[in-house]
Every structure is written in C-alpha cells, then in structure tokens.
Amino acid sequence: MGLFKVDLARPESLARLIQLLKPCAPFCLPILGTVFHSWPCRSSADAETLTRLHLWLSFELDSPEVPALFSAIVLSPVDNNQARYFCSVDATPEKPTPDEKNHVSEFIEAFLRAVDAELGLSSSINMIVGSDPPTRTGILVGSIHDKWVDTLSLIALGNGGCTKYLLPPLTSRSSPPATDDRRLPEDLTISQLEPSDIPILKSASAIPHADEYYTSRCDMSVCIRTNIEGSPSLPVAWAFPHADGSIGGLYVQPQFRAKGLAQQVIEAAVDRLRMGEREEEHGGALGWNWVDVMENNASGERLFERMAGAGWKAGWKCNWMMLKFP
Questions:
Q1: Are residues 100 and 199 in the same domain?
Q2: What top-level branch of life does the organism fall under (predicted)?
C-alpha cells in the first residue's frame, strides 16, 4: 500500500485536493475542514499554517487518473495531534468487500508507521474526562465511518461513537441573523468566548481539551452572556468550530435550558462560519456545516431533529478511535 504526502504549501496541490474531494461531499468534509479550520484566525489557507498539517493519500495526487478506491487522512497538531480519515467508498451503502477492508487496513497501518517513525508524534488526549491520558502509543483518528470499525478493531485502544448531523450549503436566508441581540431577553447578549471563560468551558465539557485549544477557538466562537448592569458578564450558552470544521462544544447552563438558546447558538455559529474569504471555506467546508453528536446524547439528537425545518438532517454513524502504532 502506498502512502503519498500532499504538499499543502503548494497552491496547485491544495486546489487539486479540493477538486478531488469536492464530489465526495459530505463524507470528505472533515478532511477539508481540518485544512481550513485548524487555525481559524488566519485570513485564508496560507502556506505558513498549512505546512504544519500532514496530509496523505493512497495515490499520487498528480496522477492522471483517480482510482475508484482511495483514502485520505490528515493530521493536525492542534488538539493533541488528532487525525481525520476518509475513504472513497464511505458513501456506498453496501458492506465493505475484502479488498476494501484490506485497502483501509493497509493504508491506516502505513499512516501510523509514518507518524511514529518519521514525525515522532502521538495523541496524548484522554478520551474521557477523569481518565488517564495514554502514553505515547498511537493516534486518535476521528470521523472513521462505522463500516470500518470491525476492520480496525484489532489496533484500536479505544472507540467513541457519534452520529453526524449535517446542514447542506445555504443559498438564502428567510429569518434575521442569529447574532441579532433583539431575539434575546434584555438580560442576555450574544458575543464570543474569551480566554477568561476557559475554566468554565473545561468544567462543562465531557471531552478534555488543552487551554491553548480553547484559546484558538475563541475568535470564531459564539457565546450568549448575561447582560446585567453592575454584574460580571457570564457565559450561559456557547459553541465553537472545532479544528476539523465541525461545530462543537455546545453547552447551555442548566438554569438557562428550554429557552431556545442552544438553537440560537447553533444558528449564530452557522452565520459566523459563512464569512470565509474563499467559497470553499464557507461553513466547515464547501458551504456545509456539521456536528458530531456523541452516542447516548439524547438531548443533542432531539435538538437537531427539531432543527430539521432549518435544513439539518441526520447523516451516518462515525467513530473516534485511538489507534496504536504497529
């Protein structure tokens, strides 16, 4: 199995990568989302930041013909060296064939060998708050389609399942912007997260992140705050774009629930993500927005089912797997 590095610092390589993956949307979105959103503060996909990403394909990007079966994986140093994986047959409803399983297994193992031997990187993130972070044993790979779980189970140290909910590219708006304060009670206002909010974010999250990661998300985040004269402004509901382009971190303080704040935060996050300079960067990628709702998160599932009228729909099951080095 070949493993071919893509030089993202070359504008022609980035353009060709987008051309390759665009017909594979929405299944390929976390790959492009990682390219566009690992550093959301940058003005566009520039060479300085893209050289810090590591992206591989199972074939040469400059090949004259694209194979029907191919894989792509991207590793970002943001948030403890996580990776995102995509296979060209993710969209097919059929069960994977033995050849497809072998392709995925060999590609992932080649990727893990390259990261271990050539880059010396590993994921030190613990998948659950309160658990011990793993030693240098592997890479946390996200957005693995559910059809590959059995194929990769022998090299998996842990696995967390999610359902993707997706919002297709928007062409028009029939309602006021969600960032409009007039939709909120007088004692609330909408802005963004600040570094001083990080202790509150960490105490509310079921998934641990470093302070530096939260800081990198603040500029594109959405936060509804208290707005009471003479009192400190406190965050009561928020969300932010993850490094793979998905909208995540959604949380509403218990005393403010059942007031529609979660939906407004999501709508505002979608508005904010439409502001990319390049059309490909709108939304998480290619104009799409998506969230990953963890297994057994019934309230999260109900929220996006209620938002079906705004275009949100359930997609497919995917997995976050800690894959050990060979």
A1: no
A2: Eukaryota
